[in-house]
Amino acid sequence: MTDTVTQTPLAPGAHFEVVQELQQHFGADAFVYQHTLDNMPTLWVPRSQLVAVLQFLRKLPRPYVMLYDLSATDERLRQHKFGLPMADFTVFYHLVSIDRNSDVRIKVALSEGDLNLESVIGIWPNANWYEREVWDLFGIVFSGHPHLTRILLPSTWEGHPLRKDYPARATEFDPYKLNAAKQDLEQEALLFKPEQWGMQRGTADEDFMFLNLGPNHPSAHGAFRIVLQLEGEEIVDCVPDIGYHHRGAEKMAERQSWHSYIPYTDRIDYLGGVMNNMPYVLAVEKLAGIEVPERVKTIRVMLSEFFRITSHLLYLGTYIQDVGGMSPVFFMFTDRMKAYDVIEAITGFRMHPAWFRIGGVAHDLPTGWEKLVRTFLEWLPKRLDEYEKAAVQNSIVRTRSVGVAQYNKDEALAWGVTGPGLRATGVNFDLRKARPYSGYENYDFEVPLAHNGDAYDRCLLRLEEMRQSLRIIKQCVDHMPAGAYKADHPLTCPPPKERTLQHIETLITHFLSVSWGPIMPAGESCQMIEATKGINSYYLTSDQSTMSYRTRIRTPSFPHLQQIPSVIRGSMIPDLIAYLGSIDFVMADVDR
Amino acid sequence: MDQTFLMVAFWAVFKALVILFGSVVIAAFLSFVERRLLALWQDRHGPNRAGPFGLLQLPADMIKMFFKEDWTPPFVDVLTFWIAPGIAMAGLLIAFIVVPVAPDWVVADLDIGLLFFFAMAGLAVYAVMFAGWSSNNKYALLGGVRSTAQTVSYEVFMGLSLMGIVMVTGSFNMTDIVNAQKDCWFVFPQFLGFITFAIAGVAVAHRSPFDLPEAEQELAAGFHTEYSGMKWGMFFVGEYVGVLLVSALLTVLFFGGWLPPFQWFVFDYIPPFFWFAAKTCFFIMLFILIRAALPRPRYDQIMDFGWKICLPITLVNLVGTAAVVLLLHNPA
């Protein structure tokens, strides 16, 4: 039915500047160019040349400064490879250049018997956690990595779950039993041993205190553990420990239909609501070749901005709470309730509506929606002004956050920081402006910037971003296009039903689509969006099936937590708390 | 046995018991008042389910606390662990014996009344220190260390902030101090003393924004992390005893105690205790409002504030008052 070949092997890709530069330097034979549906230059590099190529890209004029993502795919069961290099496993490096405003994806093929790669921590420090994750979930070894241990799963875990031969269902395992001996073993595995991290237990004169902050701590914002090496109250060093919220979202994607996976995305950044649906449905629509109507785009933007506001309100409240101000958060919850009332009237749910659909949204807007939205638009600005005056400009809040947990532009880029955390260092990089999606190019709004890169700037930026989101929402209400809320395309899901009872072909398509789910053409596509906490993307690989072959979810919170030790060394515990509050992370977003 | 002596003794014991139970019950009740007031200022309801307006919340809490398992963890230093909540509750409570709540209503009209208060406030820090140390818990220890440093710093200028009053009155006796305010409350001539004492008082009671020993966002529960049941309850009530005591002292030392704001014939029919109670309530509410309104500075910023700003102010106040006293009372 849909056997259109969407990938052409060995396409030159010469229209990409970076491909030309690479071929000039390394010779045209060094690479295999892969066509992908996201229009991103994707090159296969032999393992021997990988580090040289990455180093070259990092050092180019207008360099690829950010290692945006690094993960792998188990290719052993993939059928539609279109003459790409033979690979049992592929590791890919997604690099971003801010100066060029463009990306490049480098892939390396590995064979099952020799899962070995050189670590690239020397080029981008944030490769550290990504490489640990790949080792954890795929069992690929990175030589030269200083601490290649499990990161998302407990150290006692057996097997590498994202391999295709690892079962996805609990019923495929023996029932889980936890006896006393096993519990002791697990407890023992959780003990922090400073020597494993190359830490001293003390100097000649004094012992350090190792303070275990979390995974249950009021300011850890979820199940996050960070072990502090303390000298008095000064943090000498620290080790963040994640994975307590891991639930295998990427593995689950491999057994859900394209359509039924949407509710899972809501729960990745659980404060982002439908904003999480956005990169996923956009990536699927690229696979399917669906162009959605203008009305759909506008509705999606409007609801995404609503969720940006609710997320930022929670951020502001908890941030002020983290520096000790107990009252503002209650006011912000009142505002969030007002926003959720609108969201509920439109979508039927509050926090996790799972409301976007492949090729559209679930319903059309209800009668009277404009009035609700306008009421909210009138309500919030006054409140925001009040928060700024009463809480954010408070002198204690300022002394607690100005100059605290400061990092500069280069550090931010090296650690893969995106979103307000990056813009607080003066880098003007907001995907809504830089690479507009879903019609963001049509809106009049500004990207707030700050230059100190401290906790206070991160807080101020989010306050201002809420005002800009209100502007965007206002434009959505004023200019909501008429039209369908669903694309007229065979792969739209659930498919349009109007003609099904008159037309046998449509009826069959409809039946298959709602029973098995749509079959997406084979190919790869990635969509990045400016989510509430930074850049979030879904990189989908379809093997022409009802389910995704591989779903890679890149979340902003993961690198943000990885950056913590480099920023906080030498500060005090209260600074760490202010810093954690200013990052705006959600553990579900980190651990997936 | 002399009949009048018995009467006097009975009267003294009676007064002492009234003040003791009064302050404990009010302190405990403050937990409810604080929650309702905070709720009012934070756009929510607070505990309003138990009884009319939630007034039975306190008995409900007490029942819960008494029947909760009072667990002593195996790794603590038992003796110190048990003594700490006792000191927390008793230390500042004992200081109430020198507070005159109305004319003739004071348990012990000591001539060294103020000094006695300082001594008790100094003892109270042992509660937090012992709790922090004996719990054998890192968060508790950090809380204890913070508390010790903070209390030592703030007690230095707390004592000095009141010396102006002592100089003007010429007495450490609280009743004398109240009587000396017949014409003018000390808050006006001793404004700097008032400000610094109020700040030090908040710090000594470990109230927000000086609640670093138990800063929830940083140290979970701080020094009382390992406590449960009634031992925890004693810390809890002890904190409100501190609030009550500092409010009462602010009233007595700076706002004329039981004296009415000005002379008016209607005021002659109002019992003096009313004025004392009303002023104390005002300061208690101020304490709670401060907690609702302010964030928490960092530990070293609090130290800086104490040593670099408050201490110099009290010294200026002290020298200034001394100069004025000399000028007015020196016959030469």
Describe the structure.
- The complex is a heterodimer of chains A (592) and B (332).
- Chain A has 592 residues and is α+β, with helices and mostly antiparallel strands.
- Chain A has two domains: 17-143, Beta Polymerase, domain 2; 250-559, Cytochrome-c3 Hydrogenase, chain B (Orthogonal Bundle).
- Chain A has 20 helices and 15 strands.
- Chain A has a five-stranded mixed beta sheet. A three-stranded antiparallel beta sheet of chain A has the order 8-9-10. In chain A, strands 13-14-15 form a three-stranded antiparallel beta sheet.
- In chain A, helix 3 links the parallel strand 6 (116-118) and strand 7.
- In chain A, helix 8 (294-322) packs antiparallel against helix 19 (573-583), helix 9 runs antiparallel to helix 10 and helix 10 runs antiparallel to helix 15.
- The longest helix of chain A is centred in the middle third of the chain and has 29 residues, at 294-322.
- Chain A is globular.
- The model of chain A is unreliable at 1-11 (pLDDT under 50).
- Chain B has helices spanning 3-41, 57-67, 78-94, 113-134, 138-169, 174-179, 191-204, 216-219, 229-254, 272-293, 299-329.
- The mean pLDDT of chain B is 83.
- Chain B is mainly alpha-helical and 332 residues long.
- Chain A binds chain B through residues 209, 211-212, 217-219, 233, 320-327, 330-331, 334, 394, 396-397, 399-400, 572-575, 577, and chain B through 38, 41-44, 138-139, 142, 146, 208-209, 215-220, 291-301.
